[in-house]
User: Fold this.
Amino acid sequence: MLTVAYDGTAYSGWQIQPGRETIEGILNRCISELTGETVEVIGASRTDSGVHAMGNIAVFDTECSIPAEKFSYALNRRLPEDIRVQGSQEVSAAFHPRHCESRKTYEYRIYNAPFAMPSKRLYAYFTYTPLDTELMRQAAAYLAGEHDFKSFCSVDTQALTTVRRVDSVEVREEELAAGREIVIRVAGRGFLYNMVRIIAGTLMEVGRGKLPPGRVKDILEACDRQKAGPTAPACGLTLVGYEFLE
Assistant:
C-alpha cells in the first residue's frame, strides 16, 4: 500500500484516460519498470483533473523482492517531482481500499484579497469579493450527518445511491500579509462526483450574501443539482488525509 502525494495541476486526474497523463498511469508505469512486472494499482480516491492530494492511497500486487517499506524510496527516484510516495507498507492480499470503512478529509482553499497572489494560483481559488465566514459556518452546519446529497452531486454521476454521511464541515480563515485564506474542511465516509467542490461553491454563494445560510437545508431537501451553487474550480481542492476505520 502506497500513500501518495501529488500536485494535480499537470494531470487529467487520478484515473487512466487514453492519450492523457494521469497519476494512476504514471504509478503503473514506474512500478512496472521497477519490478519488471505488469502492475496496475487500485486507488482509494479517483481525484479529478487539477485536484491535489497529500495522502491518497494506492495498492498493488507484486512478487518483487524489494521490502514493502523500501518501495517508497525506490519509486521516488523514478517518479516526477510533482508526485511523491509518502510511505509504503505491506497489506493483506484481500485488502481493497474502496471496500473498507474509511474517512476521507478534503480541504478547499479560497484566497480572498483585492488582488490575486501568483504563488497561490495553483492551490487556491481566488476571489476579490469579501466572504462572510460566519454565514458560511452557519450554512455548513446543515451539511453534517447522513443526507441525500443529490443536489451536491454532478448530474454525470454513476453512483447507485446519492446518500452519504458527512462527519464534519468546518470553515476557518487564516490571515495573510496581503489578504486571507479561507479553508473549507470536509470529512466524511464517502463523496459523490464533484460533491466537495459543489459544497464549496454553495458556501461561497452564502459568503457573498447571495444565499441565506438556511437555504442550504432547502437545497439538500430539494435533491436537485440546479438548486445548489456552482462547482468550484479544481485548483482549490486537496485530499489531505485518508483514515481506515476497520
Notes: Residues 23-35 form the longest helix (13 residues). The chain is about 20% helix and 30% strand. The helical segments are 23-35, 71-76, 133-140, 195-207, 215-222. The mean pLDDT is 95.
